[in-house]
Amino acid sequence: MNKMETYRPCAEVRPVTAKLLLLVLRDITDDHDQVIIPQRRIAEAIGMSRSAVGRNLRRLERAGAIAIEPLYSEYGGRLPNRYQLGGKRNGR
Predict the structure, then answer these.
(1) How is residue 71 annotated by DSSP?
(2) What whole-number distance in Å separates Cα of residue 54 and Cα of residue 56?
């Protein structure tokens, strides 16, 4: 993907804070376009409240830009979500 194609998925996303979040996720994803990161760390990194990050992640999911997969430990404890760019969940 060339550098300009990186921005194409942002064209339909509103508001601008959701666009910023999508670009941040794009920047930190692995080779499979996935990232596992706490919302708190995203919020601290970009200077947004944790609730604003959560709200914008849900907007991105509704727009089909990402898929959010909740993760749990073997004991049922909550782990950070997995975010899959492109809206396709792992194996689903």
Answers:
(1) E
(2) 5
pLDDT at 16: 77
Decide: residue 69, CB within 10 A, 0-12 exposed, 13-18 middle, 19+ buried: middle
Omega before residue 15 within 30° of 0, cis: yes
Could you tell me the two tokens for 5? 């194609």
Radius of gyration of the chain (CA): 13
Q: Which two tokens stand for residue 89?
A: 């969940």
Distance of alpha carbon 62 from alpha carbon 9, whole angstroms: 13
Q: What pLDDT digit, counting tens, does each position of 44-92 carry? A: 999 999 999 999 999 999 988 999 999 999 999 999 999 999 876 654 4
pTM value is: 0.80
Higher local confidence (pLDDT), 88 or 27:
27
